[in-house]
Amino acid sequence: MNISEINNQLFRTVNSLGKEYQHLNLPMIIIAEYTVFFLAIFVILLWFTKNKEHKIMLICGSIAFILAEIVGKLAGLLHFNHQPFAVLSNTNQLIEKAVDNSFPSDHTILFFSFCMTFWLFKKGTWFGWILLAILVGVSRIWVGVHYPLDVFVGAVIGITCASIIYFTVPKLTVLTTTITKYEAIEKVIIANFIKLKKTKI
């Protein structure tokens, strides 16, 4: 059995669970489609916690994601496959998706880039984020838009890029200097906004 056959068989195993456990389809659709908004809201709120370590962590996560996306696009040039629903019969497709190259999974790259960064910065205590990234990857297979190999490679790329950035970028003095200057500007803007609001009252 070659890699392609194993990939297809694993996909069938996960994707067919949606037919057997239909009550889990809605949660999986929500995870596959909308957790990206949860991640975005969390990142925005965390940025304004006035914690310098959080800002460094979020910047590293963003850089890791950008790097991972570039690597992912390069990987996509080396290998191409359409989404399972476009190729395999009797696929349990639960969400709409344009037919294009599904290798590797962009959602998986995004979540592993940020979640691995969170886990590294928090010394392994934010393990729930890693579980969320895994769940997002599994959900993309469950809803029929990615193969296990798409998800696995996306996870490897995200984890690798997050690790590289974690061990290099925080050591750059320009990063802490830039954040310090940003925070000073932010304080002035907030102070002026409060002052303007009081004068209007």
From TrEMBL:
The chain crosses the membrane at residues 26-49, 56-82, 102-121, 126-145, 151-169. Keywords: Hydrolase, Membrane, Transmembrane, Transmembrane helix. Its EC number is 3.6.1.27. It comes from the Bacteria. It comes from Lysinibacillus parviboronicapiens. Residues 57-166 form the Phosphatidic acid phosphatase type 2/haloperoxidase domain. It holds the Pfam family PAP2. It is an enzyme of class 3 (hydrolase). GO terms for molecular function: undecaprenyl-diphosphatase activity. This is Undecaprenyl-diphosphatase.
